[in-house]
Amino acid sequence: MSPVGGGMSPLDDGLAGARVLVTGAAGGIGAAVADAFVEAGSAVVASDVAGLPRDSGARATVRADLRSAADRTRLLAATAEELGGLDVVAHLAGVLRRREIDEVTEDDWDLQHDVNLKASFFLLRDAAELMRRQGTGGRLVAATSQGWWSGGYGGSSVYAASKGGLVSLCRGLARTYGPAGITVNTVAPGAVDTAMLTDDLSEQALAGIVSATPLGRLGTAQEVASAVLFLGSARASFVTAATLNVSGGWLAY
Ligand SMILES: NC(=O)c1ccc[n+]([C@@H]2O[C@H](COP(=O)([O-])OP(=O)(O)OC[C@H]3O[C@@H](n4cnc5c(N)ncnc54)[C@H](O)[C@@H]3O)[C@@H](O)[C@H]2O)c1
């Protein structure tokens, strides 16, 4: 069974043999997601603008800057060729530039919106079109952030706006591609222990987040990967247009 089916055993995830593209796979969460799909028996193409390890268990690695239309086209074509099609896109690539609000530049705005929102639209739309042509349905899972709901903390308003746009976008894509059996969902991590979170937040700021989190700690990349795998699997066959809150209760909605 492929992940796009459903209605079989609730324990059957359909991930063995599923054809999966993971973006942001050199990052903390993306690497954990790629590893988890590999462990589940999926055939994975791992992509990032940064260099990727060759021994990750992925079937292939493709270096691509998702802001480039040519790179996106090359990435989807290479993935479909390598895997013989495409069932799941786990889109983890993203950028965060923390800035005091009065210091935000147009360059900060453009970078975050180009990667997090514009590139996401064209990548996910083109992946959905590929899946629609295949006629076998599919799964699109994208990483938003708690900021989509909270507006962001610690100089991340512009990032939060891009991630809010991503949620709206994925809901629109879910409505558009639902009739083709393609589900589109987002995962909203809270504070997860990766470079993106810890690189430019003070110990004091991190401690403040932890104390506001009912589970009393940062999340791990593997915990976000579990949520992405669920949404990418047959187990989530009737879930679409959803935003899964993976924040340890930091957000409550
Ligand atoms: N870590 C957290 O606490 C947290 C919280 C909420 C949301 N998120 C989201 O989860 C996702 C993964 O975050 P992470 O913590 O692993 O961050 P990370 O910085 O470790 O990984 C992000 C990856 O995206 C890649 N990337 C950036 N620009 C790109 C581009 N133009 N083309 C292709 N790849 C590009 C980077 O090279 C990097 O490897 C991101 O979308 C992030 O916004 C993370």
TrEMBL record:
Top-rank taxon: Bacteria
Gene Ontology molecular function: any one: oxidoreductase activity, acting on the CH-OH group of donors, NAD or NADP as acceptor
Keywords, comma-separated and alphabetical: Oxidoreductase
Record keyword Oxidoreductase present: yes
Chain segments annotated as coiled-coil in the UniProt record: none
Gene3D superfamilies assigned: NAD(P)-binding Rossmann-like Domain (3.40.50.720)
SUPFAM superfamilies with a match to the protein in the record: NAD(P)-binding Rossmann-fold domains (SSF51735)
Family to which this protein belongs: Belongs to the short-chain dehydrogenases/reductases (SDR) family.
Name of the protein: SDR family NAD(P)-dependent oxidoreductase
